[in-house]
Amino acid sequence: MYQINLMSAQLFSHSQILMAGVDEVGRGCLFGPVVAAAVVFNFTTIAQLQDIGVKDSKQLSVKRRESLVTEIKNRAISYQISYASSQEIDRLNILNASLLAMKRSITKLSVTPELCLIDGNQKIPDLTIAQETIIGGDRTSPIIAAASILAKVWRDQLIVRLAAKYPHYDLENNKGYGTKKHRMGLQQYGPCFHHRRSFKLG
C-alpha cells in the first residue's frame, strides 16, 4: 500500500500543489551512467498512478515498465531524465554522482515543483526547492515509483544500444551489473570507455 509522505499538512491543503518524484537507477552497475528522473504531478493526479499499476520499477516486467512510460508521461505536468557519466562517477564517487544526476533532472524541468520527494536518505546539495527524503520511496511513494520507471526504462534502452558497440560484456542481459559473464568479459578484454574504473572490476 502506497503512502503519500507529507512534509507539511498545510503545504498539501491545496489540490493543485506541484510535487516532483525523483529517483535514480544504476548505482550498483560496473558499466554506464547513473540515471535519474524527475517527474511532476499535481496532488490530485497522484492517486491515478496507483490505479494504472505504477509501483517500484524492480517489481515490474520489462514489458510492463515500457508500457507505463507512456501513461506516466501523459499524466505528468513535466518530466526530465538526466545522468552522470562513468567518468563523473569515478571523479565524484557514486553517491555524489547520483545526487548530481538527480539535481540535473530537477533543474531541467519546465515547471518548478513546490516539493521534491527524493528516494533515499540523502538530500540534494544546494537545491533551492523544498525536498523530503524517503527511504524506500520507490516502494512507498507513487510519484517516486513513476520516476524510477522512467529512469529504469531510459537507462536499460541506452545500455542495449551500447551493447551493440561493446559486445564482449553481455550488456544486453546484465544492463551493466557485475554478472559472471560481464566479469568474464572484463577479464578477457579489459574495461572499455564506459566502465567505472573506481569500482572493483576484477
TrEMBL record:
GO biological process, alphabetically ordered: DNA replication, removal of RNA primer; mismatch repair
One Gene Ontology molecular-function label: RNA-DNA hybrid ribonuclease activity
UniProt keyword list: Cytoplasm, Endonuclease, Hydrolase, Manganese, Metal-binding, Nuclease
Cofactor(s) listed: Mg(2+); Mn(2+)
Binding site for a divalent metal cation: 23-24, 119
Domain of life of the source: Bacteria
GO terms under cellular component: cytoplasm; ribonuclease H2 complex
Manner of cofactor binding, per the entry note: Manganese or magnesium. Binds 1 divalent metal ion per monomer in the absence of substrate. May bind a second metal ion after substrate binding.
Reactions performed catalytically: Endonucleolytic cleavage to 5'-phosphomonoester
Subcellular location: Cytoplasm
E.C. designation(s): 3.1.26.4
Keyword Cytoplasm: yes
Manganese among keywords: yes
CDD domains to which the protein is assigned, alphabetical: RNase_HII_bacteria_HII_like
Domain RNase H type-2, first and last residues per copy: 17-202
Stored InterPro entries: RNase_HII (IPR022898), RNase_HII/HIII (IPR001352), RNase_HII/HIII_dom (IPR024567), RNaseH-like_sf (IPR012337), RNaseH_sf (IPR036397)
Function: Endonuclease that specifically degrades the RNA of RNA-DNA hybrids.
Entry's family note: Belongs to the RNase HII family.
Name of this chain's protein: Ribonuclease HII
